[in-house]
Amino acid sequence: MSRRRMSAVVTALALAGAVPAFLPATEASAASCSSYPAWSADANYNAGDIVRYADGKAYIAEHANPGYDPLISTWYWEPYACDAGSETPVGNFVVTEAQFNQMFPGRNSFYSYSGLTAALSAYPGFANTGSDTVKKQEAAAFLANVSHETGGLVHIVEQNTANYPHYCDWSQPYGCPAGQAAYYGRGPIQLSWNFNYKAAGDALGIDLLNNPWLVQNDSAVAWKTALWYWNTQSGPGSMTAHNAMVSGAGFGHTIRAINGSLECDGKNPAQVQSRVTKYQQFSQILGVSPGGNLYC
Fold first, then answer.
1. What residues act catalytically?
2. Secretion signal: which residues (predicted)?
3. Most CB within 10 Å of its CB: which of 48, 52, 108, 219?
């Protein structure tokens, strides 16, 4: 899979995955805190697991752990809003697990639904801003683009290993402490380059500059890096992909933010069409119109 870099914070391109059949849209429902099991120091938890702590509050595991205390090990646990009257819970994603599995029937198990929902707390406005239609459109747009980038959530790392040594910019003051060839593409939007690992890690509070392998070893971290790009980076575009969807600017601007310098304005219409087709399919699975301005 070839990888291209068009700006300081941009990503790469992969072939889209197989077209899934459609399922009727269903809605996820929020649960009360009391419905979750009590936390136990003797239990092993996976990313996305939700527990009720002794303080009566709920916490969601952002990373797998062997029963670490939610109030002490805050890197592993995040507060989870679930009481009546609270805002939409972090885990109440507009895409159900059944819909996610339908979108990615051949996905790598690394790209888990629980890893994605565990990552949502990093950017609570993602797929949680505006009307229900807008929320679902943004979720469909994000998942369509990551599907295209990873061949249907199959590839965890960049496939062309010959590119690996190229993603180190030694002009940066922090250099490449993990090694010349350590900053290859990883994750749902194939994060690459030392400066991108530095920027994403700083934003997320994770040392990805020194440990870029976390992106290929921890599902929640991988999803967080994709959400970091989606919500904060405009790449060669004029706005972030998140802003494009919540403002009504349209799906075409998400393509421009991710790979516009290589695909938009007639440069690679086949790749643009691949992203648009996937977005239309995922919108249908979620039961919403894809809206206008689909192309870039």
1. 149
2. 1-30
3. 219
